[in-house]
Amino acid sequence: MKRCPWSNSKDIYIEYHDKEWGAPVFDDRIHFEFLVLESAQAGLSWLTILKKRENYRKAYLNFDVKKVSKFSKRKIEKLILDPGIIRNRKKIESSVNNAKCYIKIQKEFDSFSNYIWKFTDYKPLINNCKKIEDIPAKTELSDRISKDLKNRGFSFIGSTIIYSHLQATGIVNDHLISCYRYKEVQKYKFPTLNN
């Protein structure tokens, strides 16, 4: 079974690749989880984040956006001391700020899923990459979404982070065409989104 080459090095990568990466996501909790984790990853390897993922789920109360939006300064200081997550003050403070902004988007668009899928007319973008080098780090689309999120008050949410989010949540299919998941993720049934 052929996979994207980046996923073959560790079991944790294989499981993530085979079960999650590139599968379309419509669940707001999962979108929020990925935004927090992708922001935490900036400057680090995704493997580091995957290894700490369960710790993040515990520290961030299973990524309940309403609860995270109410984290106090005391709670933030506690997170900064938590060895189970990335102890970067700016990233942690940003995640709490972004939770507040995320809730505003949910109110405006009925869900964050509606908001982000609207950028692609509620259809995944299917790329036809033959090798890893063909996959971009960011695109005009991720630039646009990042700019819009920043205008809405989000922080630590650059274009590269957003492109990673689009890939992870199946808004963009960047599995190599030789990978068995390339066609598999295209079989996901899409819910009726408000558009």
What is the total domain count? 1
Largest sheet: 2 strands, parallel
Computed CA radius of gyration, to the nearest angstrom? 16 Å
- Give the low-pLDDT segments: none
Q: What is the CATH first-level class name? A: Mainly Alpha
CATH fold call: Endonuclease III, domain 1
Strand order of the largest sheet: 1-2
Listing every helix as H and every strand as E from the N terminus to the C terminus, the arrangement reads HHHHHHHEHHEH
Q: Spell out the CATH superfamily.
A: Hypothetical protein, domain 2
The counted number of beta strands is 2
Could you tell me how far the N terminus lies from the C terminus, measured between alpha carbons in angstroms? 37 Å
How many helix segments? 10
Going by helix content, strand content and strand pairing, the class is mainly alpha
Proportion of residues in extended strands:
under 5%
Please tell me what the overall shape is: globular
